[in-house]
Amino acid sequence: MKTALLVIGGGAAGLMAAGAASHEGVETIVLERNERPARKLMITGKGRCNVTNNCASLQELIANVPRNGRFLYGAFSRCMPSDIIDFFENNGVELKTERGNRVFPVSDNAVDIVDALTAYAKRRARFMHGRAVGLLHDGECVTGVRTESGDEIFADKIIIATGGLSYPGTGSTGDGYELAKQAGHKITDLVPSLVPLEIHEGFCSELMGLSLRNSEIKVVDTENGKTVYTDFGEMLFTHFGVSGPMILSASAHMRNMKSGKYKIYIDLKPALTPEQLGARILRDFSENTNKNFINALNSLLPKKLVPVIVKLSKIPLSTKVNQITKEQRASLVALLKGLCVTVTGFRPVAEAIITSGGVDISQINPKTMESKILKGLYFAGEVIDVDAYTGGFNLQIAFSTGRLAGLSVAEEIKNERGVYYE
Fold it and tell me: The whole model's pTM is what?
């Protein structure tokens, strides 16, 4: 079997690449290992699909890609969030912008995004069910792939868009990294990003299921004392530690992870200064003067959090509030403004939203997404060593790099042949 372009992977990046190339007249086959394409896209945004971030400028977009953001300048320049919003709305999906400029379908249903993107690719491209396990090349140019079933598919150009290692049940099992290695590409360290964190302190399991909706966190690197991340919003306690939007974003800033390297300070009352919080506690105590300490915090804290805070405060729980000293109140204020937990590590990469690391960007042309090592080989999406914060930025990377790779293939074929394949 022979084709002009073979796209390996039918996720967000692969479908956009296949659609972009095939709509320019390039004969295109999409090789997808799952029966249905875009399985990971179905579960993004808790099933709602945070399709992009409606940020205002290219600089803001790049600023939200902490790993190798400048590499994406060319891809973002040719496909901005406004272009993706127009794309889906022109393909029948009405969108809305929510807090943090997060863009979702009005239906709150990821299947609408998947259906629109799949239909776009399928209008011109052919789809095949299979898994690529071997890259065929002559030492200078890519020539095709060998599939798990032993078949060979020959192609003038190949785009690897197989995703990372996260959520392997959706088909992201690292196939693209192995294919890239066969072409001579370096793969940088693969670690989880946008991932829940395991915590040393046992009280997290006691708080399992408790969501803090208006808290603030500060992440400190204990090796140099520097604050690496701050955020305000929502987090969740789990049986292993902490999760939730703030924590997932914080994980993207934790490099060279090892147990104890990072501490997280949680401000349970960020709307109050220490002085204001002290006055609030004194007022609550004056209204409950004959109550035990453990029974005097219910109006200040969630019920599940009270016994943990009482224990950490080291104030005996049966102490009458009228016996609590000024120094003890000050210590309580400090605890509520800086509840400290020690990070022992990331949860497994299979639980991460994205994989950090991938095909080394120094070996990819940022203007085309083509390999600098093997002519005719291109990359798109999470398989590349780029990753961003939560909020739609990672899907924007997938769409932008996929579109650039697809259009670059079309332009290259036209330059080589004078006309597109029909």
Answer: 0.89
